[in-house]
Amino acid sequence: MKRSTDRILTTHAGSLPRPDDLVQMMWAKNDGRPVEGAALRRRVREAVEEVVQRQQRVGLDVISDGEMSKPGFSNYVCDRYSGFGGQAARGVAKDLLEYPAVAARRAATNPAAGRARMPNCEGPIELRDPDAIQEDIQTLTAALGSLQPDHAFLPAPSPGQIAFNFPNKYYPSHEAYLAAAGNALRYEYRAIVEAGFNLQIDSPDLAMAGHWHSPESSITDFHGHIEQAVAALNDALADLPPDKLRLHVCWGNYPGPHHRDVELKDIVGSILKARPAFLYLEAANPRHEHEWEVWEQMKLPQGKSLIIGAVDVLTNHVEHPRLIAQRILRFAKLVARENVIAGTDCGFSTWAGSYNCDPDVAWLKLEALVQGASIASRELW
Q1: Residue 177 CB contacts under 8 Å (≥ 6 apart), including other chains
Q2: CA 70 to CA 26: how far, in whole Å?
Q3: Average per-residue pLDDT in the chain?
Q4: CA distances, 148 to each of 111, 156, 193 (Å)
Q5: 174 belongs to a structural domain
Q6: Is 8 domain-assigned?
């Protein structure tokens, strides 16, 4: 992926608001109601074309398909891989356990609440639908037109995120589960990179597992999980060039207090062992914006770059471009301007139909992101 050689480049974390009619089709499929496959695929292709064109109009540099084909950033694997079934016990967050009314109000106002299919791992994880990722690749390629694929990315979950989301009821150990997930996901990882796209690995577990736990999860030691999950990810990515890889780590895209989040300084050393050249971190929301200070003490390794969240995705406040520029400048002065790309903290719709930020406001925020990066660029070059 390109680095910021003459200006600050912009991107985002993958998911963008899906059209309402597409959401309804996805919900119907999730509920077991009849949905014509050809009609769904056609609407996905149309939605990808629409979202690509809108990202280009906004002026984003590295864009995605908005995850239009996926009901969620990680649970889409249930449709593409065998081994998943049943319904997992709902995970619990330490911050929401202390303030349950926050979660209750959110559930009452979120029409997507409870619709995400979250199964267990009940058998061997094996690729069931190799054509699905190829269709994603072909759809995004067609939507890009003359734009080169290096200006775009496709996301996929990490082995650690699979183990975090879907409790293990089959493999003999957590480590074996991670290895199996990595082996299965390897096909999708390779397909994305071989098509010329950048691959974003979504791994909220590397931070989120510190405060969010499923009652039946095989994650019993948070820091042990990080080490094992990074090792499994590196193994799955072993034959792919680091410069085509970006690792997104976050503390959970939900509007909670987050006062139980682990500190970045306590996990960053382990995360930096991951193979991707681009580390993508939250840096805009009120709980984690201050952690630019980590890079005053931690030296960014040679060959690594940061994609920083310069826009919060959990509120309808649109950041002033000058504030976005200030966030960018802090990092640029610590890790060098060419090692900073500006993005959003997380996706705007990690689950189909779930919005913490109004869909129309999300696009205003992306416009502000581009404007803020332009301001920072004028000061840095």
Answers
A1: 121, 163, 168, 170, 171, 218
A2: 8
A3: 95
A4: 37, 20, 13
A5: yes
A6: no
pLDDT computed for residue 322 by the predictor: 98
The pLDDT, as a whole number, for residue 170 is 97
Residue 266 lies in a domain: yes
Q: Are 25 and 359 within 8 A, CB to CB?
A: no
Residue with tokens 């959990």: 314
The CATH number of whichever domain residue 374 belongs to comes to 3.20.20.210
DSSP for 22-82?
HHHHHHHHHTT----HHHHHHHHHHHHHHHHHHHHHHT-SSB--TTTT-SBTTTTHHHHEE
| Domain range for 271 | 20-380
Query: Residue 280: phi, psi to the nearest 5?
Result: -110, 115
The DSSP line for 151-212 is: GBEEEEE-HHHHHHHS-BSSSSSHHHHHHHHHHHHHHHHHHHHHTT-EEEEE-THHHHTTTE
Comparing C-alpha atoms, which of 197, 177, 39 is closest to residue 133? 197
Query: What angle, 0 to 180 degrees and rounded to 10, lies between the N-to-C axes of helices 20-30 and 37-58?
Result: 140
**CA gyration radius, the chain:** 19
Backbone φ and ψ of 225, nearest 5°:
-60, -45
pLDDT higher than threshold 80 for residue 331: yes
Distances (CA, A) of 152 to 60, 147, 224, 250, 374: 10, 9, 33, 21, 20
Angle, helix 131-144 to helix 37-58, in steps of 10 degrees: 40
Q: What is the pLDDT of residues 32-65, one digit of tens each?
A: 889 999 999 999 999 999 999 999 999 999 999 9
Contacts of 77 (CB under 8 A, 6+ apart): 84, 157, 162, 185
- Look at residue 14 and tell me if it is in a domain: no
Looking at the whole model, is its pTM more than 0.85? yes
**Chain position carrying tokens 């999980």:** 225
Backbone angles phi, psi at 306, to 5 degrees: -110, 135
CA pair distance 322, 287, nearest whole angstrom:
20
CA of residue 137 relative to chain centroid, distance: 18
Q: How many domains does the chain have?
A: 1
